[in-house]
Amino acid sequence: MEAVNPVDARMLEATASRQFGKQLAAFLHENRARIGIERSKNTDKIRFVYLGGERILVLRPEEGFFSLLIPGARILNDIERDSMVNGIFVQDDVAEFIKNGKNVFAKHVRDPPSWIRPSQELYVCDGQRNLLAVGKAVLSGRDMQYFKRGVAVKIRHGIQKSAPGSEADSL
């Protein structure tokens, strides 16, 4: 892991702003001194983003966007306390399944924001705003609202399933 230089930091902030909103970009800017990066050995491009030694984001080289990890989702959940932009709520009775990495079905999503797009990185919370998992939207927010069948969010990491950069690694 290496310290982030100003040019790379600005690129990370711009990507975060485009993908997750200005709040995360401002957070990264304020914490620039604590950000570290890991580069690909083959291409020398940024692959992983760390905050205080904890991996929070993975930069996908195919499209140049981030994949959320559990620690990064915790940061987003805290930043978005007033209005959830990059997350969804699910019914409390399915929370245990989602924590274990099971996909979210449309019928279990509670009041999804209409601005969610398919393939958008999301974090998933229960009714008390406790983080359960991170994944990628399969349906738009509007479709999640109306569909009663099918997968709404494909979960990548649940909080009880070991994920790179999560506390479960150190247990």
CATH class of the largest domain: Mainly Beta
State the helicity in percent bands: 25-40%
Regions with little confidence, pLDDT below 50 for 5+ residues = 166-171
Shape: elongated
Strand content: 25-35%
CATH H-level name of the largest domain... which superfamily?
PUA domain
Number of helices: 5
CATH topology of the largest domain, by name, is Archaeosine Trna-guanine Transglycosylase, Chain: A, domain 4
Largest sheet: 6 strands, mixed
How many separate domains?
2
In total, the number of strands is 11
Helix and strand string, N-terminal first?
EHHEEEEHEHEEEEHE
How far is the first residue's CA from the last residue's CA?
A: 22 Å
Main β-sheet, spatial strand arrangement: 7-11-10-9-6-8
* Secondary structure category: alpha+beta
What is the arithmetic mean of pLDDT? 90
As a whole number of angstroms, the C-alpha radius of gyration is 16 Å
Explain what this protein looks like in three dimensions.
The chain is an alpha+beta fold and 171 residues long. The chain has 2 domains: 2-68, ArcTGT, C2 domain (Nuclear Transport Factor 2, Chain: A), CATH 3.10.450.90; 82-158, PUA domain (Archaeosine Trna-guanine Transglycosylase, Chain: A, domain 4), CATH 2.30.130.10. 26% of the residues lie in helices and 29% in strands. The protein has 5 helices and 11 strands. The protein has helices at 6-20, 22-30, 70-79, 95-99, 141-146; strands spanning 2-3, 35-39, 46-51, 54-59, 66-68, 87-90, 104-105, 109-110, 121-125, 131-137, 151-158. Strand 9 and strand 10 form a beta hairpin. Helix 1 (6-20) runs antiparallel to helix 2. The model is unreliable at 166-171 (pLDDT under 50).
